[in-house]
Design brief:
Layout (H helix, E strand, L loop, with lengths): L1 H9 L3 H5 L2 E9 L2 E4 H15 L4 E10 L2 E9 L3 E13 L2 E8 L3 E2 L2 H10 L1
Parallel strand pairs: 1-6
Antiparallel strand pairs: 1-2, 3-4, 4-5, 5-6, 5-7
Length: 119
Amino acid sequence: MLENHLKLSRRGSEEDFLKSYREDSFIIMDGTVRRGLDGIRLCYRQLIRDLPNARFVYKSVIVEREVGFLKWSADSDTNTVSDGADSYVIRSGYIYAQTIHYTLAPKNKSADVSKQKSG
């Protein structure tokens, strides 16, 4: 189930991302609990804002019974993440609960500007 969620998540579609959750699901992220599909949609949109056009690397995926863990990194247009960590509780074929942690490292925009000026 978790492998399928990760595959759907890479497509970059909000609707594909939401397929793994139900109305009783919740996500704990950034000091907040987001409940239901509307709350999970807000988490998805925050991830897209924080990591536009992200390319994710899944470093470790572990599933034991109904608990999953994902260690990840990402490179996006504006930020990178090297310490991404998600945990999951999977019930009846869907994600019942999830935690998401990551630290944004802004890309050096001044380097990009100087490259454009010299090129």
